[in-house]
Every structure is written in structure tokens, then in C-alpha cells.
Amino acid sequence: MASMRYDLYYWPEIQGRGEFIRLALEVAGASYLDVARGTKKGQGVEAMFKLMRGESNIAADQTRLPFAPPFLKAGEELIAQTAHILAFLGPALKLAPREAKAARFTQQLQLTLSDLVVEAHDTHHPIGSGLYYEDQKAAAKKRSKIFIAERIPKFLDYFEQVLARNPANRPGRPVHLVGRALTYADLSLFQVIEGLRYAFPKSMRRREHAWPNVIALRDQVAAHPRIAAYLASPRRIAFNEMGIFRRYPELDR
Amino acid sequence: MASMRYDLYYWPEIQGRGEFIRLALEVAGASYLDVARGTKKGQGVEAMFKLMRGESNIAADQTRLPFAPPFLKAGEELIAQTAHILAFLGPALKLAPREAKAARFTQQLQLTLSDLVVEAHDTHHPIGSGLYYEDQKAAAKKRSKIFIAERIPKFLDYFEQVLARNPANRPGRPVHLVGRALTYADLSLFQVIEGLRYAFPKSMRRREHAWPNVIALRDQVAAHPRIAAYLASPRRIAFNEMGIFRRYPELDR
Fold it and tell me: For chain B, how far is it from start to end, CA to CA, in angstroms?
């Protein structure tokens, strides 16, 4: 349990990239405030914008502003970029290996998951984030077809192989991406599988048998008492069609 | 000057993501081998594939394989993901601040540049990397138009602001993104400007006046003796239409 209080800044209506941070904070039982979802003075989306623009009067380092949410406020430091926030939180939340090479590999895997997340987003927004989905549906269909047929397998084959090559993983025991304990990368792989299942349920059902270790890890994380409690709580925002993983049946072929 | 010998693995015919690593190694005068460009035994693209697939017989940690190039071999450790490789090299090459918060902000900026690089790539390949440009030209035109009008300004306005807010930057003195010394993020911002100028020369000429500090930093890096020598050497691969930044005049509007 971390003693520091963290302020997480992220869009209040979606899981999105913020969810990777929320899962880490939740599993560690950390004390945190999801600021943009708050309704008190100094909270809400406007507070997030003010801080990003250097217009906030709360105590924060205004010489080093983030480019975009999610970002974390830890003391007066503002830390942005999902994988980078997790690299920062990892040691404090005991969600990263202590040994340097293992810690680096954990972050490398997280960055690889970040790449997958960008591609998952672009399945429904291949032309531009600022345009409506309806105005790029034809391109979205083409991109999704390739994403499902080529990119999901390329990424998940890779993570399956990482799990198979981790010498600490033994038959009949819990599996992990790095070493013998839960890391933030394990949590993020869980979240990616949840997202892919939400966005592409038919495609995932047909293909998941190829990734038994990945699915075993997903199941383990889902069964973790703190994660299970979080997923059942109102703090877990439901998947929806404003987030990164969106369910448009015409893209799931 | 670092004493360790590094092996860089990246596609031999393009600058691509490997170039961010090459610039850091070059400016530090580090000893490195660009393995996939080599023609000796154990070099070339096939050597890169073998190592990535865990089929190589060179001494490397085969339990932690990279997902994709670029990756660096440092001793037996294989380190992938461009920004992550730079975070690893930063201290050894003296291209990262020693103070922890400044080092974190440097990496945060690098990850933001990585996001821009993905978007620059997707201007010509919005549907799929495996398809020909010609087969996605209509979508590429739409995406490029938005990239030029909205995304380049959003990113470069941000970096301009970072330079303006860095308290170590003073009129008439060299500018840096973090602190008062050259970092790998400075080198990468130079490379991004070079790439954007190559891909979108007309658009950049019209707009660059809005980012005077960014351009001043670009000019400084270009004038660094080791960088100037590198750029003039055969080690610098020319921009071309296989890389991330490609010049298709129909996309530069």
C-alpha cells in the first residue's frame, strides 16, 4: 500500500488510456483521486484543462506541462504518457520487478501494448480523431479487417511467446509476463484483452484458443480480489462508443 | 564517450525509428555497429530476424525478445522500443539530465515525439502498413490534410511552449527542451523537423514561423560538429519513400 496520495487526470467518461493507470492504483490499494470525475471545487474536466494549459493555481510544476491526458500529479510533479506513468508508479506500488533488466523488460512490454492500443483506436478512426466515425466508416472497415486478421495475431502471438519463454512460469501455477509476481504489464494485458473482446467479440471468440497463456493471465487478473471488487464497483466505467475500444458490429468480421 | 560497444538492429534501408538511436550514438561518439547494414558473417537483415525470433546463436537473453526493430543489444540484454532505448542510453551517453524529475520529463517528451512519429507514418498508410500506398491514397490524402492542419500545429505548439517554459533557456543562448544541456529529446525533435520538412516541404515553409524556438533548436543540433559530420557521412541514409517520412506531393497541401 502506497502512502502517497496521487491525483489522476483523465477524461471522466471513458476507460481509455486512463484505465491502465486506474487498474494499477486499484490493485495496489493506493490512495488516489480521479480528479476530472470529481464534482467538488478544483475538480472536474475544467480543472484538468487548466492544469494542462498552465493556468491552474494549484501547486504544480508549471514549467513541465503534459501534452495530453492521462497525467498524474505526484506532489508537484506532473507525469504524462500512460506507460511512463506506470514506470513511475511501478516501484512505489510494488508492481514492477526490482531488478533493473526485468524492470526494463516490463516497461518495454508496456510500450508494446501502447502501440497495440493506438492501432485499436485507429480501427474506428483511421482518418482523424476529430471526425465522426460515420464519416470514415469505409476506411474503418478496411483497417479493422487488417487489424483483426494480421495485427491482433501478431501482437498476441508475441505476448503468448513472452509468457511461454518466462522461465518463472510453471504448469499449474499463475503465469506472469516478467518474473514470478504481478506487474503493471500483466494488468495492462488483461485490459487489452477486455477491450478487444468488447470491440471484436466474434473475432476474438474465433481466435482466442491460439493464446492460452494470455487468456490464463487475463483470468487470473480478473479473479484478483481487488480487481474483482473494482470491476464490480461504480468506479469502473463501462466500455462505450466514446472510448478507445468501441463496438461497431460492422467492424467485427 | 561511452566505453561499451552497442549493437543496433534496425532496417538497413531507412532512417525510420532507428535514426533517433543513431543520432544519440553519433553525437556521443559511441562505439556501435549498425548490424543489419553489415555484410560480414552474423550481420545483415537475416541476423536481425534470427535474433528477434530467438533463433540466433549469438549470446543474448532469449527469454526476453523484442516485438519489432529497432532494438539494441547491450551485453546480452536486448532492449526495444525507441524511446525506451534512449532512456537506457541517456545516462551512459550523457544525453539525459541526472536529476530524476528532469530525466522523467525528458522521457515524457520523447514518448510524445513517438506519438507524432506514428501519426506521421499513418499519413501515407492510414489503412494498413502491409498495403501499398497506391491502394490507400484517397484515405492518405484525407488523413494528411488533417495531420498538416491540426496535428503538426498541436504537437509543435506544444514543443514551442516547452522550450519557452524551460527556465534555463535565455535570450541569445542555445535552447534545450530540458535543463541547460543537450538531451536525446533535443536530437529527436531535430529529426522530427527534418522528417516533416522532407515529407511536407510546402506546408512546413508556410507554418514554421510559428515555432521559432523549435527551429532554433533544430539549427543548433544541425550545427553540432558530430551531427554535421554524421549527416554528411554515408552512415546517414537519405530520406526515401520506404521510411516513416515520405514525400508524396499530393499529400502536401
Answer: 43
Looking at residue A13, its amino acid is E
Complex ipTM value: 0.97
Round to whole Å and give the CA distance between B109 and A80.
9
Question: CB distance from B42 to chain A under 8 Å?
Answer: no
* d(CA B246, nearest CA chain A) in Å: 18
Contact of B92 with chain A, judged by CB distance below 8 Å, is answered with: no
The neighbouring-strand residues paired with B7 are B33, B73
User: Minimal CA–CA distance to A133: which of A9, A250, A1?
Assistant: A250
> 10 Å Cβ neighbour count for B250?
9
Query: Which pLDDT does position A2 carry in this prediction?
Result: 45
CB neighbourhood size of A70 (10 A): 23
Q: Does B244 touch chain A (CB under 8 A)?
A: no
Q: Considering only CB atoms, which chain A residues are within 8 Å of B79?
A: 104, 108
Give yes or no for residue B3 having a pLDDT over 90.
no
Q: Has this prediction a pTM greater than 0.90?
A: yes
Q: C-alpha angle with apex A98: A94 to A104, nearest 5 degrees? A: 105
Smallest Cβ–Cβ distance between A79 and the set B81, B108, B142 belongs to B108
CA–CA separation, A236 and A15 (whole Å): 8
